């Protein structure tokens, strides 16, 4: 019985999590900073490094690392957004090395905000803001358009009412009961893909999508909005993102349902507890939804 020939389905290599801190010196004391973590993956036209141990086509990962720092130093204007920096890196590698077939760049931002001293923002002192992580993936196959998807993760959201869960399927293994009022807590991740990069202000889109997610989750400031399930809230949020931003082709959202339960105080003589809860970190509900324009048109 003859064996089938071995073929390569996919190969890539590169440098991961290259930290770049760039100081924008506006004057002697007034500075701003950009802090990126960059991962670059390259796909070559040949496989001789794998099949023959021939490294002659490899652009060393050390070269890749140095290139990231060089481009940041030479083109600080590209640091205005992770998307623009990713586009610059892809363009560089595909232009300089003709045997690279695909360049994929992942950029994640490390957030900082200005320190406040005596009620004033400091000129060059910053405090780490590690909650929300903005990210982007820029991919450029040779001869094809850029593919860019962006988003954020670790967006912690919680509301103390206007959330319930009832009418779900029940059988002999169901222990959960219906509720019209519960805590809704999550750490959301959202990823949206652009259908074009022409004249896009990536920073504005990011801020607007973030605002949309927070507003959809929260509802009006005084009364909120009722959520009948995590699924329904996610659908309404994704639908609104697509309706408000024609430049976005599809949007995906993940919202783990982080549970908080009323603590049983009756064992220490306290009855009627409705305010003191405890978090249950594991397990949690895992819910996701991806919505695209072809799907939206049918709804």
Can you offer a commentary on this structure?
The chain has 299 residues and is of the alpha+beta class. It is 23% helix and 38% strand. Helix 4 runs antiparallel to helix 5. The strands form 3 sheets. Strands 1-2-3-6-7-8-9-12 form an 8-stranded antiparallel β-sheet. Strands 4-5 form a two-stranded antiparallel ribbon. Strands 10-11 form a two-stranded antiparallel sheet. The longest helix has 17 residues. A hairpin with a 5-residue loop joins strand 1 and strand 2. It is an enzyme of class 1 (oxidoreductase). Its EC number is 1.7.3.3. Pathway: Purine metabolism; urate degradation; (S)-allantoin from urate: step 1/3. It is found in: Peroxisome. One of its GO terms (molecular function) is urate oxidase activity.
Give the secondary structure arrangement, pairings included.
Blueprint: E1 13-25, E2 31-44, H1 48-51, H2 61-74, H3 82-96, E3 100-109, E4 111-117, E5 120-129, E6 133-141, E7 147-159, E8 184-194, H4 202-218, H5 230-244, E9 248-254, E10 257-262, E11 277-285, E12 288-292, H6 293-296
Subcellular location: Peroxisome
EC number: 1.7.3.3
Keywords: Oxidoreductase, Peroxisome, Purine metabolism
Descriptors:
23% helix, 12 strands, alpha+beta, globular, 8-stranded antiparallel β-sheet, 299 residues, 6 helices
* Helix-strand sequence: EEHHHEEEEEEHHEEEEH
Largest sheet: 8 strands, antiparallel
Strand order of the largest sheet: 1-2-3-6-7-8-9-12
Structural class: alpha+beta
- Total number of helices: 6
Cα-based radius of gyration, to the nearest Å: 24 Å
Task: Kindly estimate the percentage of residues that lie in beta strands according to DSSP.
Answer: 35-45%
Number of strands: 12
What portion of residues is helical?
Answer: 10-25%
State the low-pLDDT regions, or none: none
Distance between the termini: 53 Å
Query: Which geometry do the CA atoms define?
Result: globular
Q: On the 0-100 scale, what is the average pLDDT?
A: 95
EC number: 1.7.3.3
Catalytic activity: urate + O2 + H2O = 5-hydroxyisourate + H2O2
Binding site for urate: 61-62, 165, 182, 230-231, 257
GO cellular component, one term: peroxisome
């Amino acid at each position: 019985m003859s064996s089938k020939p071995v073929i390569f389905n996919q190969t890539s290599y590169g440098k991961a999590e290259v930290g770049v801190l760039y100081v924008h010196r506006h004057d002697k004391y007034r500075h701003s900073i950009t802090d990126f973590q960059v991962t670059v993956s390259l796909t070559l036209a040949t496989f001789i490094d794998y099949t023959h141990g021939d490294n002659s086509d490899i652009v060393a990962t050390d070269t890749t690392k140095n290139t990231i720092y060089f481009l940041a130093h030479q083109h600080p204007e590209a640091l205005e957004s992770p998307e623009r920096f990713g586009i610059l890196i892809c363009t560089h590698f595909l232009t300089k090395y003709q045997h690279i077939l695909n360049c994929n760049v992942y950029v994640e931002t490390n957030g900082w905000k200005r320190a406040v001293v005596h009620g004033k923002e400091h000129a060059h002192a910053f405090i780490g803001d590690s909650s929300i992580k903005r990210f982007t993936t820029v991919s450029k196959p040779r001869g094809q358009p850029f593919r860019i998807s962006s988003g954020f993760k670790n967006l912690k959201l919680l509301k103390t009412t206007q959330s319930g869960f009832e009418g779900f399927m029940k059988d002999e293994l169901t222990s959960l009961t219906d509720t019209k009022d519960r805590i809704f807590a999550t750490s959301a991740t959202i990823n949206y893909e652009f259908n074009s990069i022409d004249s896009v202000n990536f920073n504005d889109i990011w801020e607007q999508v973030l605002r949309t997610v927070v507003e959809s989750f929260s509802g009006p400031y005084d009364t909120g909005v009722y959520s009948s399930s995590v699924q329904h809230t996610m659908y309404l949020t994704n639908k609104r993102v697509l309706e408000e931003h024609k430049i976005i082709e599809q949007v995906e959202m993940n919202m783990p349902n982080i549970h908080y339960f009323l603590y049983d105080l009756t064992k220490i003589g306290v009855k009627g507890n409705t305010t003191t809860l405890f978090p249950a970190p594991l397990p949690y509900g895992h819910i996701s939804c991806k919505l695209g324009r072809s799907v939206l048109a049918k709804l």
